[in-house]
């Protein structure tokens, strides 16, 4: 059970590994949760047998963007409307590099360049903001404005002077010539796009499986577990301390600015990765990734799912994007707005933490030994 | 070559645009601690109400603008009651399950941003569903004035006059009226103000109505110059937010000063390098300003003043 003592030599390896992923900063520290988690991952692995994996891979890719905001906003308290800036930078960097060097090794390098590009973008913006003493909400406004300016900028790059090597940025028309995603070097490489592999599955016969879907799934699950380990580490506790009370954290001797910058860079790199995969999946990128609507989608996912919950970010991203794609039409945005408004007003902590609370309240007492959530005055007064 | 008159007119235009775009946002932000991301959509309401009452009801433009302003102010009151203060949902909650459903969004900056963004999505898409992708515009009044080889819309010059009048009006409201005094008391210390008998809830409601009304006025004034589409509010957002950030805590002075400084920067860069670089320069100026004056221009002035007082 979750009543495990702090890690010590007497524990099994599994328990010690598991302890890394558990703590007061994440939902789900019980056996039941991990069983459910494995079932969910297994279901996602099997999903292409029954569903549209090509579409679903988009949701997985966007979940990475949602996670990047969750860690920056939910855990460190920096509300960034600019995650799409780094997302777009990642995507555009990937496009530019891969078009110029379209060998497998070059494309692999382009993926890394995209991630690094997102990180560098975040480092520059973050350095100016955090070391410039820009406070909480002004960070939000600056990131929002940065998004809009980048949109204006990319939209006017249609001319031939906006060409980097062989890659034309293309203004509103975007960049359509991105090569298919390959990872590896030379012959030891594998193409992930449009390269469905026939696999014989008992009960289903021979099925064509999309390798990109599995790449996205592996990256998402890996990122989720990695972030869980991060937020439950000592550094994660310092991050949460920054979120709860910056001044007090500084008084305790933590370098608040550096923590915020580091997390912001991490979030930027993660958003960059998401952008790389987005551009690779669509084999296309255009300035719509910098529009106000796209900029706010991560904020919607994370607020609805529960900003202090990594799992909430993933679930809400997939659910909302699924609703958005299937509903389509004129009323989809109205419903999205209503959902956002309703969640902020009635469940300010998000849906997943609320569900979690309901489950815990209906469970016998010992299960509560997983420790209280991060102290939260609103929760305490609600009981 | 830089033409002096062109530059001056460009400056007046930028100044008017920035001040008008920012005024409503600054008031709501400064007094209520609410960041209204639906600010652009309040401008949209004003612009649509003005245009529709001029084209459909045949009102003269000035009357239509008044209608636009009042409709937006009324809309602001409704939004305040339903969303920002949560008074209506809470009243229903008290009647049905005996507890409040929502907490007011006052001073919950991030939450208010997210909530009002939801509102803005609903409004933009709602406007598109109801009115379609665009509606007929009203013509720009007053014609042009010509000088040398150039001509310039007289209406744009009128707008800069209006923006100055608006700053004076807001200054008067906040320094000389009872509402202004109680509103400033509420900013300084809400608890004490309430203990002294100020109905802070009313102040918040009135403030939101004034802020919305100003956004509506902005929409009404720019209605003849813009193409009427549901996303028209977006083009005000960058300038509005940058002006509020650069202006700092003091609402009227901050808006006026940041309108002046940013207007000058934008005018020079637009004149030299075109609209796009004008915008980039605006953002760069905001970044630099924030790097060195994290509390904005008026925050800096306050710091200097208090230092000087300590020195005496």
TrEMBL record, chain A:
Entry GO CC: plasma membrane
Compartment list: Cell membrane
One Pfam family recorded for the sequence: BPD_transp_2
Acetylation in keyword set: no
GO MF annotation: an example: branched-chain amino acid transmembrane transporter activity
The keyword Cell membrane is annotated on this UniProt entry: yes
Disordered, as annotated region: 363-383
Record InterPro entries: ABC_transp_permease, ABC_trnspt_urea_permease_UrtC, LivM-like
Keywords: Cell membrane, Membrane, Transmembrane, Transmembrane helix
Membrane topology: Multi-pass membrane protein
Transmembrane segments: 32-50, 57-75, 81-102, 109-131, 137-159, 180-200, 212-231, 259-278, 284-302, 309-325, 331-355
PANTHER family from the UniProt entry: HIGH-AFFINITY BRANCHED-CHAIN AMINO ACID TRANSPORT PROTEIN BRAE, HIGH-AFFINITY BRANCHED-CHAIN AMINO ACID TRANSPORT SYSTEM PERMEASE
Protein name, as recorded: Urea ABC transporter, permease protein UrtC
Automatic annotation (TrEMBL), chain B:
Transport keyword on record: yes
Membrane topology: Multi-pass membrane protein
Residues annotated as transmembrane: 12-37, 57-79, 155-174, 203-224, 236-265, 272-293
InterPro entries linked: ABC_transp_permease (IPR001851), ABC_UrtB_arc (IPR019924), BCAA_transport_permease (IPR052157)
Places the protein is found: Cell membrane
Keyword terms, alphabetized: Amino-acid transport, Cell membrane, Membrane, Transmembrane, Transmembrane helix, Transport
Family per similarity comment: Belongs to the binding-protein-dependent transport system permease family. LivHM subfamily.
Protein name: Urea ABC transporter, permease protein UrtB
GN (gene name): urtB
């Amino acid at each position: 059970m979750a009543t495990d003592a702090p890690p010590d030599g007497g524990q099994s390896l599994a328990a010690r590994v598991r302890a890394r992923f558990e703590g007061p900063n994440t939902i789900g520290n019980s056996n039941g949760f991990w069983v459910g988690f494995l079932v969910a991952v297994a279901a996602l692995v099997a999903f292409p047998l029954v569903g549209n994996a090509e579409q679903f891979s988009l949701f997985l890719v966007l979940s990475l963007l949602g996670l990047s905001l969750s860690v920056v906003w939910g855990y460190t308290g920096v509300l960034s409307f600019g995650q799409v800036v780094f997302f777009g930078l990642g995507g555009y960097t990937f496009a530019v590099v891969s078009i110029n060097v379209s060998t497998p090794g070059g494309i692999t390098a382009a993926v890394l360049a995209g991630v690094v590009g997102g990180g560098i973008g975040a480092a520059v913006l973050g350095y100016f903001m955090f070391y410039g003493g820009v406070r909480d909400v002004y960070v939000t406004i600056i990131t929002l404005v940065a998004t809009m300016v980048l949109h204006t900028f990319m939209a006017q790059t249609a001319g031939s002077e906006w060409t980097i090597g062989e890659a034309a940025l293309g203004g509103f028309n975007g960049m359509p010539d991105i090569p298919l995603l390959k990872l590896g070097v030379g012959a030891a490489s594998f193409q992930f796009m449009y390269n469905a592999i026939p696999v014989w599955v008992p009960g289903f016969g021979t099925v064509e499986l999309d390798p990109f879907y599995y790449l996205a799934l592996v990256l998402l699950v890996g990122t989720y577990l990695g972030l869980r380990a991060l937020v439950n580490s000592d550094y994660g506790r310092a991050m949460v301390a920054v979120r709860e009370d910056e001044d007090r954290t500084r008084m305790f001797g933590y370098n608040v600015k550096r923590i915020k910058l580091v997390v912001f860079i991490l979030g930027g790199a993660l958003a960059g990765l998401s952008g790389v995969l987005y551009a690779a999946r669509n084999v296309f990128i255009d300035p719509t990734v910098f529009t106000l609507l796209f900029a706010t989608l991560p904020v919607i996912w994370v607020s609805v799912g529960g900003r202090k919950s990594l799992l909430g970010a993933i679930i809400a991203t997939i659910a909302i994007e699924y609703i958005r794609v299937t509903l389509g039409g004129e009323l989809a945005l109205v419903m999205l707005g209503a959902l956002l408004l309703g969640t902020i007003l009635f469940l300010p902590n998000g849906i997943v933490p609320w569900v979690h609370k309901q489950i815990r309240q209906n469970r016998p007492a010992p299960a509560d030994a997983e420790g209280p959530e991060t102290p939260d005055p609103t929760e305490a007064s609600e009981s | 070559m830089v033409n002096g008159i062109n530059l001056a007119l460009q400056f007046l235009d930028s100044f008017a645009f920035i001040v008008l775009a920012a005024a409503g946002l600054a008031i709501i932000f400064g007094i209520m601690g609410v960041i209204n991301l639906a600010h652009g959509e309040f401008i949209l309401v004003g612009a649509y109400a003005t245009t529709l009452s001029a084209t459909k009801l045949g009102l003269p433009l000035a009357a239509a603008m008044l209608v636009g302003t009042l409709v937006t102010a009324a809309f602001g009151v409704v939004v305040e009651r339903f969303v920002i203060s949560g008074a209506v949902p809470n009243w229903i909650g008290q009647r049905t399950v005996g507890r409040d459903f929502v907490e007011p969004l006052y001073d919950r900056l991030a939450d208010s941003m997210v909530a009002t963004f939801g509102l803005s999505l609903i409004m933009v898409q709602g406007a598109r569903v109801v009115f379609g992708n665009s509606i007929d515009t009203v013509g720009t009044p007053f014609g042009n004035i010509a000088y040398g080889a150039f001509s310039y819309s007289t209406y744009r010059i009128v707008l800069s006059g209006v923006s100055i009048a608006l700053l004076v009006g807001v200054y008067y409201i906040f320094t000389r009226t009872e509402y202004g005094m109680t509103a400033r008391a509420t900013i300084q210390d809400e608890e004490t103000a309430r203990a002294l008998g100020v109905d802070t809830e009313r102040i918040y409601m009135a403030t939101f109505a004034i802020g919305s009304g100003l956004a509506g006025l902005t929409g009404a004034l720019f209605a003849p110059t813009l193409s009427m589409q549901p996303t028209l509010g977006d083009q005000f957002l960058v300038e509005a937010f940058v002006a509020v950030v650069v202006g700092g805590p003091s609402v009227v002075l901050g808006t006026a000063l940041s309108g002046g400084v940013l207007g000058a920067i934008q005018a020079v860069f637009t004149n030299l390098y075109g609209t796009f670089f004008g915008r980039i320069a605006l953002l760069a100026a905001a970044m630099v300003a924030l790097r060195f004056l994290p509390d904005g221009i008026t925050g800096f002035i306050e710091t200097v003043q208090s230092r000087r007082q300590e020195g005496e």
